[in-house]
Automatic annotation (TrEMBL):
It comes from the Bacteria. This is Acyltransferase family protein. Pathway: Lipid metabolism. The chain crosses the membrane at residues 20-45. InterPro entries: Plipid/glycerol_acylTrfase. GO terms for biological process: phosphatidic acid biosynthetic process. Keywords: Acyltransferase, Membrane, Transferase, Transmembrane, Transmembrane helix. CDD domains: LPLAT_AGPAT-like (cd07989). Coiled coil: none annotated. Residues 95-203 form the Phospholipid/glycerol acyltransferase domain. One of its GO terms (molecular function) is 1-acylglycerol-3-phosphate O-acyltransferase activity.
Length: 271
């Protein structure tokens, strides 16, 4: 897997119209591949031997590889640059990967990096014709806010799966700190062996909540992924009943991300 840092281009406008065309091509490609997976690739993969677990893992690896090829396409076409720090710490059994959510394609990056991972995804994606096929084949978990969702995610972790979750539940509003819901902490206390935070920074912001794909920034976007030190969920589970432990863990994670993102802002170069 290629993880080399892509150079950051800060030139004004930065091939604006080319990037607009390349962004449109990227979204069209994503939709076409999603339909192709649903209508062609997964029916063919289903013909291969193996039990349900083997089929699920095959689907996840296929999605992960295609997601990473999609990121490489966006990088090679000039839409974005990226850097990843600490990717070797991702993908361990029972690991819960917690990340902030500044952009629409954060999950594409993380699933591309951790190709055997499970993921808690928005319920609306289960009805989307371009995404519902891959999501169902990979048996990702629907974020419907129910106790069944929490239990399913906890069971996946106890079974040794890696789980990716965005505790905000939706994309961060630009200029505001992330606000974590307690569902992520509740899941971690149900079954995570370790919690690994991933701090994501996007500069300039793009593909935020309610922002159309064609409203691209004046310069090329740079994505930064920094994998933090592991957090022991058992240290919080021992601090009292489940609701109290969940609240303390959520507060810890919330303050961790606010602190890390604030340090990034202070150290960011001024153009």
């Amino acid at each position: 897997m290629e993880l080399a840092t892509q150079p950051v281009n800060t030139k004004p406008r930065d091939a604006y119209y080319w990037r607009l065309v390349a962004t449109a091509a990227s979204f069209a490609l994503f939709g076409l591949v999603g339909l192709g997976l649903r209508l062609v690739i997964f029916p063919l993969l289903a013909c291969l031997p193996g039990n349900a677990e083997a089929h699920r893992q095959r689907a996840r690896r296929t999605i992960g590889r295609l997601f990473w090829l999609f990121i490489r396409f966006m990088a090679r076409s000039g839409v974005l640059t990226y850097e990843v720090e600490g990717a070797e710490k991702l993908g361990r059994p029972g690991q819960m990967i917690i990340a902030n959510h500044p952009s629409l394609i954060d999950v594409v990056f993380l699933i591309g990096l951790v190709r055997n991972a499970n993921c808690v995804v928005k319920q609306s994606l289960w009805q989307n014709p371009f995404t519902r096929g891959p999501i169902r084949e990979a048996e990702y978990i629907s974020n419907d806010g129910s106790m069944d969702m929490l239990d399913a995610a906890g069971e996946a972790l106890r079974n040794g799966q890696t789980l990716v979750i965005f505790p905000e539940g939706t994309r961060t509003q630009p200029g505001k700190a992330p606000a974590f819901h307690r569902g992520g902490a509740a899941i971690a206390l149900r079954g995570a062996r370790i919690i690994t935070p991933v701090v994501i920074k996007v500069s300039p912001t793009t593909l935020t909540k309610a922002e159309p794909w064609y409203r691209i920034p004046m310069r090329r976007v740079h994505f930064s992924f920094r994998v933090g030190a592991d957090i022991d969920p058992y240290a919080f589970a021992a601090q009292g009943p489940a609701p109290q432990a969940s609240r303390k863990l959520n507060d810890y994670l919330h303050h961790y991300f606010i602190k890390e993102l604030a340090e990034d802002e202070r150290s960011a170069p001024r153009n």
